[in-house]
Design goal:
alpha+beta, six-stranded antiparallel sheet, about 30% helix, disordered N terminus
Amino acid sequence: MQQQNRDNTTTRILVPTGALGISFAEQAFARGVGAKPDIICVDGGSTDSGPYYLGAGTSKYSRAVTKAEWRQLMIARAEGDVPLVIGTCGTCGADASVDWMLSITREIAEELGQTVKVATLYSSQPVERVQDALRNGRIAPLTPAPDISEDSLGECTNIVALAGAEQINAALDTGADIVLAGRATDTAIVSALALRRGDHAGAAWHGAKIAECGALCSTEPTSGVILLDIDQEGFTVEPMAKDARCTPHSVSAHMLYENADPFILYEPGGYLDVTEARYHALDDRRVRVTGSHWAPSDQYTVKLEGARIGGYQTTIMAVLRDERYVANAREWIEKLHRFVTNEIEKRMALTPSGYDLEFRLIGVDSALGALETKPSNPAEIGVLGVITAPDAETASEIGKLINPYVLHYPLTQDEELPTFAFPYSPAQSERGALYEFCLNHVMILDDPMDAFRLEVIEVGHG
């Protein structure tokens, strides 16, 4: 590892991985810790896997894996005597997920014999607060955004606001050893300390965007660990894995990651503009970036995310291996769909307006549907039936009704009944509540902390 000389005005940030719970290279992490960072920052959340985790207020990552990785970070924090910050605890950043992460922190502190000061930053929004903001014209839609009303807001099982650097710094200002933040922007947790110390604002936000997903901005994205130096003029980024490199291309390209505009990135309190940014390779591992600009906004806004129950689901699966059925799978499911729709109406008095039933061909077009262009000649095809209804009982009853037809329905009416394969028994699975995102809006705040709650406690041995 080649370390850039730095003075006291440089803020050094260690990002061990793109998300806690997906692993990182331990040797690379050790190199990063050895570089003596001023802070260790890690993201704990994602919306990549859909709305379920926000709707249910639960984590998609294993508790055991999360605890094992967090233990390593807590040990490194104690060795370096620096703050440790995690944003969007437990995938979704709801209050219950912050408390889940706090329970893990308590356990580890006890096991390690550590006593630590922990700041918990809560991002969940009471429905009444958001309804009041809507009434007073303090909520604006992003693009695209669904229509919302006070009634639709009342249907949300969880609403969170995305914290920015101001809220993270409020937590750091308590002198906490560890900050457990609810829903926050990925960049906020990384940029906060540098902004607090007066480093270049454009560099702080741009560097945070590049480092937010760890080594994804390098040639070895799975290695995880990134070291970021932010100063008065720009930032320098370096991967910690032995064989990884950052290049001007790999670094500049990360502005497009989860961002529709390669030059503009909106955050609470303003936006980052990298139109004039310049990327320079210092050597074969490090990239230096200057020219980034931060533009403060006139109003302080935070993005809102909300999820609600959109129905209940049951799935059923069969596997086709007969060559004729494999070759005519689309025709078969079209006929099957028409037939079972009629049966559901006749036997259950339900029209398609009261439920949804779709069949997906696994191995043919289950990802892209009608948009699929690649020819496919598999030996077998999985047929996945997805039933969505207003209540779990109806979804389950439809699954049971269509079961014999998914197993035996013939391609034509003048042939013997075929028998396909159910890969498991029972053939249907009750998936329970189906959640859907129902907010893509911003809320105007008079003060950055108006929508957030901060608590400080001491946890640990004894």
